[in-house]
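Weekly modeling sync, notes
Attendees: S.R. (lead), two postdocs, one rotation student

Agenda item 3: backlog of single-chain predictions. S.R. asked that every request posted to the team notebook include the full sequence so nobody has to chase files. The rotation student volunteered to paste the first one in as an example of the format we agreed on. Action items at the bottom.

Example entry:
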Amino acid sequence: MVHEDGDFGQGVTKGAKAAAEKAGMNVVADISYNAKGTNDLTSVILQLKNLQPDVINVVQYDTDAQLFWKQAKQLDLNVKALIGNGAGQSSDNFGKTFGKNADGIFDTSSAMLINKKALTPEAQKLEEEFFARYEQKFGKKPDIYVLISLGLTLVFGVMKVANFAHGDFLMLGMFGSFFLFEHFNMDPYLSLFIMTPLMFVIGLITYKFIVQRTMNRPHVVQIFAFIGLSVALQNAALVGFSADFWAINTPVASAVFKIDSLHISVPLLIAVLCAAVMTVLMFLFLHYTYTGKSIRSASQDPFAAALMGVSNHKINMLSFGIGLGLLGVAGSLLIPVYSVYPMVGQQFVLIAFVVVVLGGLGSLPGAHALPIGLKKKLELARAFATRPSLLFLDEVMGGLNPKEVNDMMELITVLNREHGITVCMIEHVMAAVVALCERIVVLQQGRKLMEGTPAEVTSNEAVIEAYLGGEFAHA
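Predicted structure, as returned to the notebook:
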C-alpha cells in the first residue's frame, strides 16, 4: 500500500487494505509520503524493491503519480500489477506522458471506462475481458463514479490561475476589431462574431503550449509565465502597430442618448447592455448545461470531478478559451469608445482584478455564490460574531474536500481552545469527530449505540459494525 499522507490517501488505503485482507491477500507494507512539493520518491520505490510485492496499490494525485511511475521505471521496479486508486493514473496527463510505458497499471476510477479511445487495442481487449469475468463472478458490472472580468473570474475560479496577461489579450481583441474595420470596413459590433471564436481558438492554443505547462507548478512559475507572455504580446504589438494610438470613427462612436438633462454615450450603453446579456448567458450556461456543470464541479473540487469522469485538462482548456473568447466580445465593444495601443490592456486589467476580488474570487454572481467550503466558514464567522459560549454545529464537514475539512478542523480548534467556546457537533466525518471531540455519542436509528472517548468509540465492535459492516467488526 503506497499513498499520499492526506485524509484522502489514508481513507482510501484503509478500505483497500481491508478488502485485500478479506480476499486473503497479505499486506506486507503501508507506505505514506507527503505529496505537497514532493520531487523525489526514490526512497519509497527502493523500499518496494526490497519488499518485492506482487501487487502495489497506490493512492496518488496527478503530479506525484507521474513522478512515482517515472522513477519506478528508472529504478526497474517490477510487479505483476499496479492498482491506481486515485486520480493520478486516470488523468489525461498520465496517459499522454507515458503512452505504452503505462502498460501494467489497472485504474479503478471511471476515466478509462468513459474515454475508450485513450486505450490501446491490447488495453481495450484486457478491459473487455476483465468486465466479462467480473460480471460472471459478481452478477453485475463494476460500479462507475460516473467582458473582461467575466473571463478573468472564470479562468481564476476553475484553474486557480491569475492571468496577468489578461489585459494584453484584450488588446489583441481590440486590435483585431480595428483591423477588420480598417481593411474590410466591418462594423465593430459585427466583428465580435469573428473576434469571439478567433480569441477562443487563441485561448485554446495558449493553454496548450503555455498555460498547461505551468499547471500544478509553484505559483511563481505561473506568475512569471503570464508576465512573460504579457511582455511578449506588448512587444509584438509594438512591432506590428507601433506605439501610436489607433481609433475608429463610426456614426455610433460619437452618438449620445439624451433624456432631459441626462446625456448617455450610446457605445457605452451598448457595451453595458451586451455585458449584462453575456453575464446572464454565462450564468445560464454554467448552471443549466452539462458542460457548465462540469466547469463548476472542476472549480469546486477538481479531484472529485475527475472521479466523476470530468476531464480537468479539457475543462481547464475550455475555460481558458471561453475566458479569452469573452475578451473578443469586450474588444469589439470597447474599440468604438477607446483608442487602442500596445499598452491599452494595462489600464483595464487592474480594474478587472478589483472587480473579481470584490465580486468573490472565482464567483460569477458574486459573494453569495461562494464555494461550499467558504460558505461554511462564513456561517461559522457569523455565529462567532455573536460571542457565544456554546456553539452547535450540524454536519459542518458535509460536502467538503479533504483540505477544506482540515481547514475547518483548525478553525473549530481555535474557537474551542483559544476562545473557550464549547462545541457540540453532529457529524459523520469520523476523522474530524475523532480529532476534535473529547466525548462522543454514537446514535443509530434514534437510539444511543455507544458513548465514550474517541479511543473507546473507534474500538467498539458495535460502532465498527454500524459503520463498516459485520465482516469488519471482528477483524
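Discussion: group reviewed the output briefly. The chain has three domains: 2-109, 148-368, 372-473.
Action items: rotation student to repeat for the remaining queue; S.R. to check formatting next week.
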